[in-house]
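ok trying this again, last paste got cut off
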Amino acid sequence: MFFLPMLIGAGAKFFAAKSAAKSRERIAQINYNIDMSNARIGYGNQKTQLRLNTLAGRIELDAQRTNMRLSLAGVEAQKQYAERLRMFARAKTKQGRLAISRQLKSFDEMQSDQGAAVAGSGVTMGGSALDIMIESAEQMKLKIQDMHDQDNFERQAAMDDAAMRDIGADRDAAVSRARFGYAQHRERIGRRANRLGRATARTAFHAARMEAEMARLGQQSQAQAQKSEAAAGLLGSVVNTAVKAYSYGQASGSSGWLG
């Protein structure tokens, strides 16, 4: 009967080792679940961030497109106003010429009337009368020159204003188109970066899953080895005990290895 405790001890070691192996397997599964949950969460967060980046790029591009359209509408308004200024300048020039023509015609008529009046009175065209007419002609000449200069000044000012507005409108249109083009470029780069980011996120997720699988398989292999070692130990203990019992029986002449 002294061999029975040996068997009980071997059995207890076997079941303890088997229980430890099962615990290792459960821990391995728990760790695998945690690792996979973290990997899925990280992958999901990355995809969400990439979608937000794509949406932000589209919103920025739409905003720049709207700004460009508004700016081009303002440019068109400036162009139209510049054309009206040129029309005003041309009309002003025409009006000024007509005014000068009317002024000259009126002066000629007045000079003719004065000459006829002087001739009708029997006074010759000379002396004070002629001096007065010459002075009047000089004054009219100066007045016509002033009218001409004023018309030229106003016409040139309107044309210069129109030219500056055209330049400003062209500059605004160029800047607006350049900003929209830059926004398009950034949006294209963003889309490419997001595609690369999605591919990188997928690769990282698959790598994390593979690492979790390998860790779980490693733990399971260790647990299985622990079970096999425990079973081998139990079998060895049983065989060793049986051999000892048989030897003891042979030596004592008893046929029972427990007796």
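PB: full thing came through this time. The chain has one domain: 4-249.
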